[in-house]
Amino acid sequence: MILRNSQPLTFFTPDETNNLGAFFFDTGISAGFPSPAEDFKEQRLSLDKELIRNKEATFFARVSGQSMIGAGLDDNDLLVIDRSLEPANNKIAVCFLDGEFTVKRLKVDKDEVWLQPENPNYPIIKITKDNDFIIWGIVTNVIKKVY
């Protein structure tokens, strides 16, 4: 994995892997009553195949900060970002704004664009012609640790 650091996001590119993937249990895991163990069917699963549609345009970035906690993006989560997807209203995007990367929800109305945080403690950012602004990619998945 190649690492590129840019506050507040740290970017990674996917490594080539030839492994078979982790074990996948096709029956699902019950969050209610347990199902009999003999019912599961064991297969292999590649997270690359599950999470990445366009390998050449996909990057990973680690979140730093709390501005998107309402969208389930917490500090230290790993984002999967696809640069080949078209930006659209209400999508979560990684943007380059005035020399820094940020992740926010896009709000588009006619010719106006706002970057909407998902935390009321952070301001909405209106993009103007004075901003150096690029929509760098669209967030497709988030990988988080649970412990």
Give a verbal description of the structure:
The chain has one helix at residues 47-51; strands at 2-6, 9-13, 22-25, 42-45, 58-62, 78-82, 92-97, 100-109, 112-116, 125-127, 133-143. The chain has a nine-stranded antiparallel β-sheet, with no helix packed on it. It has 147 residues and is mostly beta strands. A hairpin with a 2-residue loop joins strand 1 (2-6) and strand 2. The radius of gyration is 18 Å and the shape is globular.
Task: Write a brief structural summary.
The chain has 147 residues and is mainly beta.
- Termini Cα gap: 24 Å
Helix content: under 10%
Cα Rg: 18 Å
Would you tell me the structural class of the helices and strands?
mainly beta
Describe the SSE topology.
Elements (H helix, E strand, L loop, with lengths): L1 E5 L2 E5 L8 E4 L16 E4 L1 H5 L6 E5 L15 E5 L9 E6 L2 E10 L2 E5 L8 E3 L5 E11 L4
Antiparallel strand pairs: 1-2, 2-5, 3-4, 5-6, 6-11, 7-8, 7-11, 8-9, 9-10
Give me some keywords for this one.
mainly beta; 147 residues; 1 helix
